[in-house]
Amino acid sequence: MINPETNQDTSLIHRAAEYTPPRSIRHLLVGRPLQTADAPHETIGKAVGLAVFASDALSSNAYATQEILVILAAAGTVAFGYVFPISIVIVVLLAIVVISYEQIIHAYPNGGGAYIVAYDNFGRFPALMAGAALLTDYILTVSVSVSSGVAQIISAYPQLFEYRVAISVACVAFITLVNLRGVRESGIAFAIPSYFFIFIMFLTISTGLFRTFTGDLARVVNPPPIEHFGEAIPTVTTFLLLHAFSSGTAALTGVEAISNGITAFKEPRSRNAAITLIWMAFILAFLFLGISFLAREIQAVPSEAETVISQLARTVFGGQGVLYLLVIIATTVILILAANTAFAGFPRLGAMLASDGFLPRQLTFRGSRLVYSYGIVSLGALASILIIVFQASVTRLIPLYAIGVFLSFTLAQSGMARRWWRSGRLKGQPQQSSTSMLHYDPRWAIKMISNGVGALCTGIVMFVFAITKFRDGAWIVLILTPLLIGMFLWIKRHYSLLASRLSLENYGEPPPYDTRHRVIVPISNVHQGTLAALRYARMLSDDVTAVHISMEPDDTEKVRKKWETWGRGTRLVIVDSPYRLFLEPLLDYIKDILSVRQPNETITIVVPHFVPEHKIHNALHMQTAEMLRRELLSTPGVVITEVPYQVP
Amino acid sequence: MINPETNQDTSLIHRAAEYTPPRSIRHLLVGRPLQTADAPHETIGKAVGLAVFASDALSSNAYATQEILVILAAAGTVAFGYVFPISIVIVVLLAIVVISYEQIIHAYPNGGGAYIVAYDNFGRFPALMAGAALLTDYILTVSVSVSSGVAQIISAYPQLFEYRVAISVACVAFITLVNLRGVRESGIAFAIPSYFFIFIMFLTISTGLFRTFTGDLARVVNPPPIEHFGEAIPTVTTFLLLHAFSSGTAALTGVEAISNGITAFKEPRSRNAAITLIWMAFILAFLFLGISFLAREIQAVPSEAETVISQLARTVFGGQGVLYLLVIIATTVILILAANTAFAGFPRLGAMLASDGFLPRQLTFRGSRLVYSYGIVSLGALASILIIVFQASVTRLIPLYAIGVFLSFTLAQSGMARRWWRSGRLKGQPQQSSTSMLHYDPRWAIKMISNGVGALCTGIVMFVFAITKFRDGAWIVLILTPLLIGMFLWIKRHYSLLASRLSLENYGEPPPYDTRHRVIVPISNVHQGTLAALRYARMLSDDVTAVHISMEPDDTEKVRKKWETWGRGTRLVIVDSPYRLFLEPLLDYIKDILSVRQPNETITIVVPHFVPEHKIHNALHMQTAEMLRRELLSTPGVVITEVPYQVP
Q: I need a labelling partner for A102 at 20 to 30 A (CA). Which of A253, A353, A555, B420 fits?
């Protein structure tokens, strides 16, 4: 057979039909928006895109204002007035970050997460920093969002307060299960709750503003007990303001989601994604400023017992009526959705790191249900542990959260700045087409400045964050990130070493095929399963020996009798084991045989293996093959084979 | 070859040399006293036997008196006076139980635990009740002994109080590790601490008694805060006394140990064991009465902060000097030893239940280090859970403890009563030699009455216990025991069903050997490991197909090129998988082949498997064989073989 491509005889090599996943898996690709990159013919428009990618960013409104207040509370209620100015500074920061990401979207139309941008412009180490930061943040997104969602529920039903940790863990377990079982959401499943949240929050804020300007809006009735974080201080200090600002930057988390998922958009995708990003930024800014402004007006207080959102809703709508409940429900649902997006992003990033050799290779098979499950279960487990350790307190989780986000912002934007610098140096050179499509851009200087300012601002925020929140828990992240990077490098090293050792470069002539083959069948009894194993063994080789470890003379006598009938001429060796040991004498026998084997002789141990109807019954049977494998794994030339016997 | 025994030609069947465990395992048998039954030539005398078997029983002195006081405290300190009369009643009960066990020792010279005696005389169900009760009690022995041991340490070092749970769990972990790692104790390792405990307690009690009668013994100086259990009541009620009595019966736990281990004694072993039992009973009675008497004299109070033993020692020796510390150390050590004996008894009982088919069969290989480990780890884990749940409080653990002990006492003794009754009916019949050696005993009536009284008393105690302690936690045991019995029966049912299904009774003629054999080798790359798997596959059959799942066209091109060089004529099929799935297309291909296979065709899937230098690297490789096995286990005629390739 002549291969038309290579014009070579390759009759040995056949190409089978392309594998198309059945409906259920195709559906997965449609439903899981962040994976639609794999199937570019299924794209979404701006309206759905906003719903899909904005849940993470918008949901941070549920806690950002409150976290500013918690810190300010250390200086007494008088400090609460600073919440609005701080929020304005954060919105300015948001604008800077969004302008930077808008440039990333145009420069990386195939998706430009911090990991890719850092790798492309700085190389391995900064990319791994971004990777570590992002992985940590996916976990924290789940913990923080779910804890905040449960805090909303508790605001409406205070009697649930003492069960908050249990409810939060149950929520994470539920999201994990949904993701494992494969109930897939379509764009519409995101669109309804996202737009409903936007609508109800607009309604709340508009009503609140209207009532403020008509002088009709009162203070919070029966405010919950004020909670503050850290020691009380007599006066408002710069440190306190910076500290509060750091907490408020949680509002920016999730802004990068669109730049990761550009390929999900309809063409012209960069343009559509950029427009969606700007919409999202305006909505986010309006909601955040509105909530902060009104929180000050109604003199909302930070509390574990009732969220600021709840205080706001019941004050604006004058009681805990239907509208109040709708605000609580919408907020909870969008927080749960935000947690859910992390379950798509985590395995996706894992696959990127894995295909570069920094995480176990098997994670690259990202569609594979089995492998995918590991990622989902680990994410759920780690998020649950954080929730338990930090008692489902958003305030205690926040110090761990935003530092990673800002590290990745800084890396992405300084990467972009470097990119524009390099682009500027290409002036006059012919346009080249590389994977990152770097070419001369006449506006390189302004773009470099814009990304540079972004990098500088986010970098400063990161340092402010690390310093002000060091003792609150940021130190954990500062320890964890280098550890993760170390792990990535360790894994990479293992793969490189292994590849060089397995290489066929200097392998020479392989050993011949015609080797001797000896087969050993350990049997404890003679029954249908034994005979199936024996039949298989006889197919492999003519040199078959059955071995019986004799612990009870009576049993052995039965085996001996049955063998005369059913052994069909196969040699049986009986090893007496008066000490009632099983594995040890068997290994001893095998090692005796190994000690006299000839060169090029392979020994296969064929073990009968029941397949019981129910998996739980496995615990009732010796996993002989498993035990032998553990003992003999490092012995060359020994293969252990289980012959499954399905009990009829 | 002619077998001299059967005078039959059995040249097919060879008997290999008996397996003698190497020195390390022999040492295990010597060192682990409760296992010496397996090696009857290594026996112990009465003095060592007392040390070995008495630690469990004697150690209960560390808490029995205190547990009586805790209950009495509900009626105020005036009720403490009842501690001595209650102790006398308990010692009478001890006498009755010991007389009963003395008869068991003579009737069952091969070891007569409650399980064996109940099985022999009543049959399956009562035996399982005893089995369930004993397993629970082994776990509780560990929890209670360790918690009490830690309570002694805390008495001397009160600043450790808040770490008591952590210290207790660490102790259990330590004992578990010691048992896992195989640091084996000889008889002497038991003898020193046991006799030291007996000596130091004799010294304490004698000094105390002497000082009492010289009118020199004062009350406890600075007694700790009194702790009581349950609601305070105005006066001493019968219920309270029975409740206190129930708690005090904890003193009897461990008395049955000698009857389980008779075979460890030198001949005449029944006589030696019986004498040892009686010695032990006298020592136990003296220590218990002495402690209870002196506790009343010095007006010791029950407390979590300081044990009664500690109060006694510092009062008798006038301060926390060297003698005081020696008492604390001796008590702690004997409690730890008592916990350690459970680690030998638990797997031993498990083996008995397993060989009757009520627990997983693999537990019968009791010498096997691997299997043995499961039992040790489960025991350690369960005991730790109890310690955590009950906050290392002996008082809260005790209600779960003694009910099982008394259930097994009752079953063993009523079994013996029934045995004497049957023995009496054999009068005049020829003596028969069965396994249990039941024959006419002229003194059957008196023996029956003695065991009957024992059964009645322990039965009544059990009911008193269940009623007075129901709400304190005994209900847990009353639920757990039937669940355990249900599990035993469920396991038995599985084995019986399986045996009948696998039976060769009506199997007819087995299928012929000469079946077709098709081999599939999934490869992701071409390297030395792939070639090893291919070599093995070619040895199994001539019909070998390699399959490559193509996820990256570039990689596939490399595979194709290498295959032309290294494939040596073996067919390669390439399956394109644009969705980056791996397992699904492979399974799909295998199922295609299965759908066209011929009758009697077996399909073997040979998977290359790296054996990395360090086990941890396994996580970095696809466990392809494991995944295929999981998916194809229930498909008849498919065998999955891993060919290990040791990376050089």
A: A353
Chain B: give the shortest CA distance to residue A44, in Å: 19
Displacement of CA B550 from its chain's centroid (Å): 51
B325 confidence band (pLDDT: 50, 70, 90): very high
A230: left (phi over 0), alpha (psi -120 to 50) or beta: left
- Based on the domain organization, do A235 and A363 belong to the same domain? yes
- CATH number of the domain encompassing residue B486: 1.20.1740.10
CATH number for the domain harbouring residue A626: 3.40.50.620
Do B405 and B546 sit in the same domain of this protein? Answer: no
User: What ipTM describes this predicted complex?
Assistant: 0.71
The count of C-alpha atoms lying within 13 angstroms of the C-alpha of B312, restricted to the half-sphere facing its C-beta, is: 35
Cα torsion A277, A279, A282, A284: sign: negative
Residue A596 is predicted with a pLDDT of 84
Which helix (H) or strand (E) covers residue A641, if one does?
strand A638-646
How many separate domains does chain B show? Answer: 2
Measure B69 CA to nearest chain A CA, in Å.
36
Q: Does one domain contain both A472 and A389?
A: yes
The dihedral formed by the CA atoms of A458, A459, A463 and A465, expressed in degrees to the nearest 10: 20
Asked which of A394-398, A472-476, B161-165, B188-192 is least confident by mean pLDDT, the reply is B188-192
A16: β partners: B575
What six digits make up the tokens of B511? Answer: 């299928």
Nearest CA in chain A to B602: A536
Is residue A27 one of the residues assigned to a domain? no
Reply yes or no on whether the pLDDT at B178 is more than 70: yes
Same domain, B117 and B162: yes
What pLDDT score was predicted for residue A151? 93
Contact B634 A627 (CB under 8 A): no
Chain A residues with CB under 8 Å of B522 CB are: none
Q: How far is A584 from chain B (nearest CA, A)?
A: 7
Q: Answer whether residue B499 is part of any domain.
A: no
- Asked if pLDDT for residue B240 goes beyond 70, the answer is yes
Tokens describing residue B635: 């498909």
Per-residue model confidence as pLDDT tens digits over A94-108: 999 999 888 888 888
**Based on the number of CB atoms within 10 Å of its own CB, is A434 exposed (0-12), middle (13-18) or buried (19 or more)?**
exposed
Contacts 24+ apart (CB under 8 A), B495-501: B495/A620, B495/B357, B495/B361, B496/B357, B498/A610, B498/A612, B498/A647, B499/A527, B501/A528, B501/A647, B501/A648
- Token readout for B206 is 């004698």
Distance (Å, rounded) from C-alpha A25 to C-alpha A513? 41
Whether B315 and B274 share a structural domain: yes
Chain B hits for A639, CB-CB cut-off 8 Å, are 536, 641-644
Q: Are residues A445 and A525 in the same domain?
A: no
Please give the residue of chain B at the shortest CA–CA distance from A645.
B636
What is the residue range of B618's domain? Answer: 516-646
Closest listed residue to residue A222, CA positions, set A294, A311, A320, A151: A311
Is pLDDT above 70 for A213? yes
Task: Report the residue from B14, B502, B578 with minimal CB separation from A527.
Answer: B502
Do A546 and A477 lie in one domain? The reply is: no
Question: Domain end: A489, A507, A525, which one?
Answer: A489
Taking the CB of residue B177, how many other CB atoms lie within 10 A of it? 13
Tens of pLDDT, residues B100-140 = 888 888 888 877 788 888 888 888 899 999 999 999 999 99
* B309 burial via Cβ count (<10 Å: 0-12, 13-18, 19+): buried
Buried b (16+ CB within 10 A) or exposed e, A227-239: bbbeeeeeebeee
Contact A498 B647 (CB under 8 A): yes
Q: Does B209 share its domain with B302?
A: yes
Using alpha carbons only, give the angle A303, A308, A314 rounded to the nearest 5 degrees. Answer: 115
A359 within some domain:
yes
Domain-located, residue A496: no
